[in-house]
Design brief:
133 residues; mainly beta; Elongation Factor Tu (Ef-tu), domain 3; six-stranded antiparallel beta barrel; 7% helix
Length: 133
């Protein structure tokens, strides 16, 4: 009996483990942060979603590089009864949980990646900071 061939396995360097409070430490202000954002949804052909989304859509929001795995919690507010389809560009309100460091990232003109897990599905751009609801 032959011995099995060795596997060709690449080992990734260890990433620094993050604790919950590294990213989600409350700011002391429990009011959410609301912004008006231009949401550019990638087309299905460009690797985006296969279908549309509607109210209460909560993807991951990544303000770092594509390889970063630090995400913020934010809900894209789609008007009742409407859908956002792959390939569309819409101006929508995004409501974020107010956590440490996020308010510094949310400045007019700032862009970020909108992801479903590791998959890039849209890009957001801050158009305006909104008053509380």
């Amino acid at each position: 009996m032959r011995s099995p061939r060795p596997l060709n396995v690449r080992v990734r360097p260890q990433m620094k483990a993050l604790t919950f409070t590294d990213v989600f430490e409350p700011t002391g202000d429990d009011k959410p942060i609301r912004v008006l954002a231009r949401i550019s949804v990638l087309s299905t052909e460009d690797g985006g979603r296969n279908g549309p989304f509607t109210t209460s859509y909560r993807p991951n929001h990544n303000f770092g590089a594509p390889s970063d795995r630090v995400f913020y919690v934010g809900q894209v507010e789609v008007p009742e009864g409407t859908w956002v389809h792959p390939g569309e560009i819409r101006d929508l309100v995004v409501t974020f949980l107010n956590v440490r460091g996020l308010s510094e990232l949310l400045q007019v003109g700032r862009t970020w990646r909108i992801q479903e897990g590791p998959k890039h599905v849209a890009t957001g751009e801050v158009l305006a900071l909104l008053a509380e609801a």
